[in-house]
Amino acid sequence: MICVTGINSSGTNWLSKLFYLALGGEGKFMIALGGEEKFVIEPWSPLAHGYEEVHLYHPEYWEMAEANLGLLGRWPGRNELPTAEGRARISGALTALENTWPKAVGFKTLYFHYWEAMRERWPDIKFVSIRRDLQGWLGSLARRQGLLIHMFAGTGTWTYPLAEPPPWLPMARAAAEDGQTPDKWFPLLKAAYYRHVEYEWRDAHGPADSLRTSFALLAGSWDMEAAKILEHCGLPVPGDEELFQWAQSRRRRWADKDYRREDVFGVIELLQRRGDCRCD
Question: Which domains does the chain have, with CATH numbers?
Answer without folding.
Answer: 2-274 (3.40.50)
